DNA sequence: GCAAAATGTCAATAATATATTGCATTATGA
DNA sequence: TCATAATGCAATATATTATTGACATTTTGC
């Protein structure tokens, strides 16, 4: 029931492949805006899209996306 | 641009934890039907839900979900 | 410094994930 | 076998992802 937040390394993986947001978007079959919003952590993509990004960048899902650990002091 | 299909091992992971669909659903904060449909491969969950299931079952995203390899002969 | 490319962002709309309810079917255990 | 739990499934409603187009801002290379 906990409200989950997550972080991602999509931008790093994309840049390592020498791709622009638009190129990655085209390869993944989505729009540039969708990739931009995911990189900015502003929303919650579908699994299919995550798997596409994983395949294109050559990174595993767990390398790309993870639950944000609550930084309690 | 390729249309991606995927498979999952959610049911196995759930049963290994001794959970019913309803229990997993409650823990993940979704309905029983949503879990049932995911297990049946009938739809495409959001990343947040995948991460919840991953956390609850103690399995990595890559263990739970993968791209269906086209069985070309 | 300038031009072009890349990215951010907004608003409107479309597509689809998820909720809800209710009932049918299939396991499971006494 | 019987009662109950667990799962499947359908219809409809809602929430959120994703699209599209347009324009602003930032980066990058010359």
Report on this structure.
The structure is a homodimer of 73-residue chains. By secondary structure, the first copy, chain A, is mainly alpha-helical. Chain A has a single domain, classed as 434 Repressor (Amino-terminal Domain). Chain A is 52% helix and 8% strand. Chain A has a two-stranded antiparallel sheet with strand order 1-2. In chain A, α2 packs across α3. Chain A is globular and about 40 Å long. At the A-B interface, α4 and β2 of A face α4 and β2 of B. The structure holds a DNA duplex (30 and 30 nucleotides).
Class derived from helix and strand content of chain A: mainly alpha
> Helix share of residues of chain A?
40-55%
Task: Calculate the mean pLDDT score of chain A and round it.
Answer: 92
Unreliable segments of 5+ consecutive residues of chain A: none
List the total number of helices of chain A: 5
| Outline type of chain A | globular
Q: CATH homologous superfamily of chain A, by name?
A: lambda repressor-like DNA-binding domains
CATH architecture of chain A: Orthogonal Bundle
Rg of chain A from C-alpha positions? 13 Å
The termini of chain A sit apart by 23 Å
> What is the number of independent domains of chain A?
1
Q: Count of DSSP E strands of chain A?
A: 2
Largest interface: A-B, 23 and 23 residues
| Series of H and E elements of chain A | EHHHHHE
Oligomer: homodimer
């Amino acid at each position: 029931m906990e409200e989950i937040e997550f972080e991602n390394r999509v931008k790093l993986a994309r840049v390592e492949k020498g791709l622009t947001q638009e190129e990655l978007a085209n390869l993944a079959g989505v729009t540039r805006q969708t990739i931009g919003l995911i990189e900015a952590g502003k929303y919650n993509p579908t699994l299919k899209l995550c798997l596409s990004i994983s395949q294109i960048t050559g990174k595993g899902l767990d390398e790309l996306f993870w639950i944000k650990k609550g930084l309690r002091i």
